[in-house]
Amino acid sequence: MKRLQRVSFVVCLFLLVLSCEKRTCGCVPPPESPFVGDWNLTRITYGLTQKTVTPAEAGYTESLSFLNGKYRQTRNGIPVQTSDYSAVYPGSSSSEGLIYFRADSTQQSFRLAGSKLILSERGPRGAVIADGSTYEYSR
Questions:
Q1: CA 126, CA 78: separation in Å to the nearest integer?
Q2: 74 - beta bridge partners?
């Protein structure tokens, strides 16, 4: 009798395992970052004074590249920083959000306006910078 109970239990367990389906998550993959590509600095607006200058007036050129989760910053043609990055979009729009940089645990808010990428002053994760500069880039 005990043997019959064990066999029945094993058969039921086996059938239970076979009847389970692998669930798909139903998740939506994250959108490709709208700022993927190469960007060149076109204007800097200083936070406290609101003075706007061009890269020539600031004395340097700068370009950014975002591709496949990798970030590269060059200044005057010389690479100055590389990092893995991720972006989050707190609102319903993919034209505004935050970029998180893994290399130095910083964040930077961004806004896309047409063909322009506007970045805020970069700072530590979770920090709010009151009078930081903004940097405008174009493709």
A1: 29
A2: 63, 79
Encoding tokens for residue 1?
């009798």
Strands 62-67 and 70-75: antiparallel
DSSP element (H, E) containing 2: helix 2-19
pTM of the model: 0.73
Q: What is the DSSP string of 50-62?
A: --EE-HHHHT--E
Range with the poorest average pLDDT among 3-7, 13-17, 70-74: 13-17
Those residues whose C-beta lies under 8 Å from the C-beta of residue 80, and which sit 6 or more positions away, are 73, 74
User: Within 10 Å of residue 21's Cβ, how many Cβ atoms?
Assistant: 5
Q: What is the DSSP string of 7-75?
A: HHHHHHHHHHHHHPPPPP--PPPPPPPTT-EEEEEEEEE-TTT--EE-HHHHT--EEEEEETTEEEEEE
pLDDT at 129: 76
What DSSP element (H or E) covers 91? none
